[in-house]
Amino acid sequence: MWQVRWDNLAAAPIGDLLTPIVCEEWPHEAYDGLIEGDPMRGALALAASPFGSATRAALDVALPAGVPVVLWQRRQCLKCKAPRTGPCPGADFVRDIAAMLQQTPLQELPERVRALRNDALAPDSTTPCGKDLVLLWDDPYSQPPPMKRPQAPDTDSRE
Ligand SMILES: [Zn+2]
Fold first, then answer.
1. Model pTM?
2. Which of 84, 87, 37, 30 has the alpha carbon at shortest distance from 55?
3. Among the four 61, 66, 112, 118, which has the fewest Cβ within 10 Å?
4. Alpha carbon of 60 to ligand 1 centroid (Å)
């Protein structure tokens, strides 16, 4: 399932394939229905950090189900503490990050996330959704990077 979801993510820009997860309290069963049974759901955008918010339930379902890509901002959606009126403010992040990834294919996502994080640090930044952006990236095809061999002449091991 992990590889199937990954391969499906190659079909379109990531911005088109993000599943938004807002701060509302959903039971695990609801996420089971949304995520587990649908192989097209390979990338989630959480409205708040899963550590200390209701979005944690989505992550708890997504990881064992083989979802390889999850994005969030390292902050809580404080305005979602009750009582709240109106929509989840963290939903703005979810919408904005989807827009920022409208041209981004899967393989370029880590680099794009790095660029958005850097852009968000600039004083005149127009991409606040890059601030403290976290990417969980679990490529099922990745190999550990090759060890860099020392190039010192006395370690030349050719025979
Ligand atoms: Zn919220």
1. 0.85
2. 30
3. 118
4. 18
